[in-house]
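Saturday, quiet lab. Running sequence design on the C-alpha cells for the scaffold JK sent over.
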C-alpha cells in the first residue's frame, strides 16, 4: 500500500485510491494555475476575476480529471445549480476552498453554509441519521431538489468526501480530504474518517535510456594516440615564440544567434 494513501481512502476506493488522489491533486493544481493566470492578466483589483475562475475550475477540472480515469460507474451529479459533482465508486466528492485550514477543522470552511450545501449533506449517507435524530436548529425549508432527491433515494446512499484546500496568492498550499457529517445548521461538522492530508502523487521516475547508437556516437571509440616530440635545443634557447593554431579569418564575421 502506498503510504501516502490513508486507510479510509484505500478501503473506500480500493485499487483506484492512488489514481483518484492523483486526479484530485491535478485538478486543484490546474485550478491554482488558472487563478494565477487570471490574476496576472486582470486589471481588476477587487479580485472578482480570480475568484470566479477558482469557483468554476474547482468543479469542472475535478469532474474532468476523474472522468478521464475511466472508472466504471463514474457519474456527474447535477446539483440543480450551475455546477455538477463527480460521483466515483458511490462517493460524492466536493471541493471546498479555504485560506486557512487550521481554523476550520470542526466547521464549514466558508463564511456561510448555503442551502444547497445543506441539501448535499442531507442527500448523502452523512445525512441519514437526521431522519431519526434531527439536528437542533437545522431545517431544510423545502424538499430536496430533484437531482439530489434521486441521490438520497439510492441504496446504498452515496458517501460524501470533502476536499478542503488552501489556496491564496502564493498558490496551492495544503489539501485535506475525508468523510464528514454536518452537526448543526450553523456549519459545525464532524469528521467520520481521519481528516487526512492529500499529497501530490509521486513523480514518474526517469528511466535509463539504453545506448543504442553504439559506435556511431561522436565520443565513442578509443582516444587517438598523439605522438609527442621534444623541442630541439636551438629552438628552446631562441627568442622565437612557439607556433600556435590561428583562428580562421571567417570566424569574426559569423553573427551570433543571440544578436
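Result came back. Writing it out in full:
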Amino acid at each position: 500500500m502506498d503510504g501516502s494513501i490513508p486507510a479510509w481512502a484505500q478501503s473506500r476506493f480500493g485499487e483506484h485510491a492512488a489514481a483518484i488522489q492523483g486526479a484530485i491533486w491535478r485538478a486543484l493544481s490546474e485550478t491554482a494555475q488558472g487563478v494565477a493566470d487570471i490574476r496576472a492578466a486582470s486589471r481588476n483589483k477587487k479580485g472578482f476575476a480570480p475568484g470566479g475562475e477558482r469557483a468554476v475550475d474547482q468543479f469542472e477540472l475535478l469532474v474532468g480529471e476523474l472522468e478521464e480515469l475511466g472508472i466504471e460507474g463514474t457519474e456527474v451529479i447535477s446539483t440543480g445549480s450551475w455546477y455538477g459533482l463527480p460521483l466515483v465508486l458511490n462517493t460524492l466528492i466536493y471541493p471546498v476552498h479555504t485560506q486557512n485550514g487550521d481554523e476550520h477543522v470542526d466547521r464549514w470552511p466558508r463564511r456561510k453554509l448555503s442551502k444547497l450545501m445543506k441539501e448535499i449533506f442531507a442527500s448523502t449517507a452523512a445525512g441519514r441519521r437526521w431522519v431519526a435524530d434531527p439536528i437542533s436548529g437545522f431545517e431544510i425549508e423545502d424538499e430536496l431538489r430533484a437531482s439530489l432527491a434521486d441521490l438520497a433515494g439510492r441504496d446504498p446512499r452515496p458517501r460524501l468526501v470533502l476536499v478542503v484546500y488552501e489556496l491564496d496568492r502564493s498558490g496551492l498550499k495544503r489539501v485535506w480530504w475525508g468523510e464528514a457529517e454536518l452537526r448543526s445548521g450553523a456549519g459545525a461538522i464532524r469528521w467520520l474518517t481521519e481528516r487526512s492530508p492529500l499529497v501530490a502523487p509521486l513523480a514518474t521516475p526517469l528511466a535509463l535510456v539504453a545506448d543504442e547508437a553504439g559506435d556511431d556516437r561522436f565520443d565513442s571509440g578509443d582516444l587517438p594516440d598523439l605522438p609527442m616530440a621534444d623541442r630541439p635545443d636551438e629552438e628552446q634557447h631562441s627568442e622565437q615564440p612557439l607556433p600556435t593554431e590561428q583562428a580562421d579569418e571567417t570566424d569574426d564575421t559569423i553573427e551570433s544567434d543571440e544578436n
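Notes for JK: Residues 38 and 50 are 6 Å apart (CA to CA). The first strand starts at residue 75 and ends at 78. Ask whether to fix the surface positions before the next round.
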